[in-house]
């Protein structure tokens, strides 16, 4: 079918509905009424001649035809945004949507300087639309690799070939327990490694079992998708767990959380910025990377400073 200007509007609505998993959730993002979204979806389904999604009491879900159509929609919209951005860059202007992925629970870390990078790029290119998303390390890397994200910042213990990584800073993680846990009130010198191994642990699902975050503990009986969910489990007093020190500090000041044997149970977690190679990075990603590296006082170069995971490296 021939793509018309009106079709692009319908496709952007479709993409927003899928990303937000429903009409109601997409309403705020699109700033249009739910009834209007429904009308747009019906128009797109009529235009394509297929049913794209199921909606009703069972919740929102894509049909198989809808899944295929959405994958094609994402590729089309990304190509269109890239075309607009690249052509405007010829005239020294940058426009379009800059999509940045970020790990969860990082904003409280004083070493996390993306807000400063936002300030710089907003001042330089005020017409850019910023879109921030969060996800697991695997999700963020996949997003960059497939072009759904321009840039991602997080900790990536398992690198993916075909992407470029730049070191930014280190995040310290320490073992913690919550108020009410049997170890909470014990003096540190009375807590042994054997004592700690005897207790249940809450881990994060995006760490492999053999990672330092989990491998010491035979009783990792609870899993969380992110740091905040893991903190809920630890604050219950039923579990131990490694969490970033900056995320734990407010709860420690309230007396709700305590570090356990920080002399033995801690590790440093490197945070990187990940992009595609320069040839396929695009002007938006290049501009944001330049500003992000600047706020960390790092040189902006393509080959000399970047760690490229080449074709001889396996996927993890």
Report on the architecture of this protein.
The structure is a single chain. The protein is of the alpha/beta class. It has eleven helices and twelve strands. It has helices spanning 5-19, 23-30, 34-48, 64-89, 114-124, 137-145, 193-197, 227-235, 245-253, 278-281, 283-295; strands spanning 53-54, 61-62, 96-102, 128-134, 151-154, 164-178, 201-204, 220-224, 240-244, 257-259, 266-275, 307-308. Strands 3, 4, 5, 6, 9, 10, 11 and 12 form an eight-stranded mixed beta sheet that branches. Strands 1-2 form a two-stranded antiparallel sheet. Strand 1 and strand 2 form a beta hairpin. It is globular, with a radius of gyration of 23 Å. The model is unreliable at 302-306 and 310-316 (pLDDT under 50).
Q: What percent of residues are in strands?
A: 15-25%
Q: How far do the termini sit from each other?
A: 39 Å
Please report the number of helical segments.
11
Counting DSSP E segments of at least 2 residues, the number of strands comes to 12
The biggest beta sheet reads: 8 strands, mixed
Mean pLDDT: 86
The radius of gyration computed from the alpha-carbon positions, rounded to a whole number of angstroms, is 23 Å
Low-confidence stretches: 302-306, 310-316
How would you classify the helix and strand content by structural class?
alpha/beta
Q: Spell the H/E element sequence.
A: HHHEEHEHEHEEHEEHEHEEHHE
Helix residue percentage: 25-40%
């Amino acid at each position: 079918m021939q793509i018309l200007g009106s079709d692009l509007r319908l496709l952007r609505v479709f993409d927003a509905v899928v990303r937000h998993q429903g009409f109601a959730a997409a309403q705020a993002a699109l700033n249009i009424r739910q009834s209007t979204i429904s009308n747009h979806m019906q128009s797109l389904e009529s235009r394509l001649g297929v049913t794209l999604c199921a909606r009703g009491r069972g919740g929102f879900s894509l049909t198989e035809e809808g899944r295929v159509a959405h994958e094609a929609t994402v590729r089309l919209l990304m190509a269109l945004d890239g075309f607009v951005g690249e052509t405007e860059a010829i005239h020294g202007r940058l426009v379009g949507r800059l999509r940045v992925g970020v790990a969860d629970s990082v904003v409280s870390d004083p070493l996390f300087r993306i807000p400063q990078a936002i300030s710089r790029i907003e001042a330089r290119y005020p017409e850019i639309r910023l879109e921030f998303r969060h996800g697991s390390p695997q999700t963020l890397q996949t997003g960059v690799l497939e072009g759904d994200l321009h840039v991602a910042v997080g900790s990536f213990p398992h690198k993916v070939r075909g992407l470029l990584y730049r070191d930014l800073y280190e995040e310290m993680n320490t073992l913690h327990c919550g108020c009410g846990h049997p170890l909470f009130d014990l003096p540190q010198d009375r807590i042994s490694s054997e004592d700690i191994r005897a207790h249940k642990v809450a881990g994060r699902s995006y760490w492999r079992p053999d990672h330092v975050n989990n491998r010491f503990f035979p009783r990792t009986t609870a899993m969380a998708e992110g740091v905040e969910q893991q903190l809920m489990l630890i604050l219950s007093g039923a579990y131990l767990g490694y969490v970033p020190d900056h995320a734990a500090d407010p709860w420690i000041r309230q007396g709700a959380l305590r570090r356990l044997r920080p002399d033995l149970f801690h590790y440093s977690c490197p945070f990187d910025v990940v992009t595609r190679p320069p040839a396929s990075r695009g002007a938006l990603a290049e501009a944001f990377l330049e500003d992000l590296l600047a706020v960390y006082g790092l040189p902006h170069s393509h080959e000399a400073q970047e760690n490229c995971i080449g074709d001889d490296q396996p996927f993890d």
